[in-house]
Known about the structure:
single chain, 3-stranded mixed beta sheet, 23 helices, mainly alpha
Amino acid sequence: MADARVPTPIDDLAEQWLDTLLDLQPELHVHLGRPGREADYGDRSPDGVAAFAEAARATLAAVRAATPEDTTDAITRDEMIRTLELEIEQVEAGFWQRDLNVIASPAQDFRDIFDLMGTESEQDWDHVARRMHHVPAAMAGWLDSLRIGIAAGNTPAIRQVREVAAQARKQTGADSFFAALADRADVPESLAADLRSGARAASEAYATLVDFLEQDLAPHAREADAVGREHYALASRGFVGAEIDLDETYEWGVEELARMVAEQEQVADRIRPGAGVAEAIALLEADPSRQLHGTDALQRWMQETSDRAVEELGRTHFDIPEPMRRLECMIAPTQEGGIYYTAPSEDFERAGRMWWSVPEGVTDFDTWRELTTVYHEGVPGHHLQLGLATYNSAELNGWRRLSWNSGHGEGWALYAERLMADLGYLDDPADRLGMLDGQRMRAARVVVDIGVHLGKPKPDGSGTWTGEDAFGFMAQHVNMDDSFVRFEVNRYLGWAGQAPSYKVGQRMWEQLRDDWVAANGADPSAGGLKEFHRRALSVGSIGLGTLRTTLLPH
């Protein structure tokens, strides 16, 4: 690591804001691997939201009044102003009153935090037990916020209510995640009894959630999936980290999808001359040499693939510090679908982790389809990006290292997939088809997400988008099983603006790279791209608008 810079007043403000977040959202202690508050939840009640907004307004005023001392300060100031203004706007718009969806709401957060908690010592298990006992209070505070939304007529869509109720029901009773977690503990009986009691308390809290969703919220939930242009624009600005022209982006998404389909057809012809995409996929799915059976085999393959990428890319195209060379590939304890990454702890004692939440009943996996996913989540994707931000403590204050922007992060991960193709790692037509399969899906969801939520005309001219239209459209463009398609579409419908940030982010990364190369006279074949990547990733995960201003200030 480089010598640490002397903290400036703006660094101090950023650290103070991080301390405030750690106090108001103590789950961050677990995410960062910091001691303290290991068993606590943040306050999701109306009072908790008000406390957050008050703190954000005070910090925003202080940051606006501060003067940068160097470039690092200028980036920090710009990004703090951007994010604080946005968070305040979203509070004032009542986002917290309808905070319910199938993938990224308190219904999932209350449980998912346990995946990152230590279970090696009795003290660790004590923290687990106490957190399980705290689930009911955390749940009650959040439900109070949803009740405010009911009173204000500001509710989530009925589809999300029903789907989350089905998810929550899995966390109730003797077969819940919490019961299984308590049963794993090899601890003295007194602590084991506390764990079992905590598991019952947490499961009962989820039973309360099911009752609330079905009896209280469902009768008031809106029927339409669409959130409307005003809500969508505010959500999109948060996810992308810049304001985009939603109408132009929709039209670009339609064109990008057509390009992905055409490129897939070309690759399919290489797999078997004259074959279409569907036939090529059928051939690959029937090839036993390209299949894995069971989650143990999947986990081993993920780890071997990831280790090889780290070792090879670390010699050639990226500087990968030694602490970052450990990346753990995990099968998630849930069965909800989805693949995700969790960053290392600040001291790298807990490694970065790639998690695969395998849907119930799915036992077979295609390596040609999933190879690009390992690069997306690992190296040069999220692990390189977030690991470097964690590692760069000499230059980035704690708040900058913690920050995450979806357009920056997910856009980089898609950019990384294409980069691996450019570097020759996806020269096998099957592997390239798998990469294009994912890129096609990401383009299709730009069309679906903006189309449904803004009520745009469908590309085939058959009318205006509805939520129901999304399922059939995505099934045409995603070569995955029905359970995956259902989960993905429900995610888009409930988490407006997030899904397009991947492909939109990739587009903006590629535009920025090309503009930076042109402005700096860099030679991509002689290390120019390596220098661009070094500079771009060294500043951490900032909004794409801030990143562009940083790398191309004029």
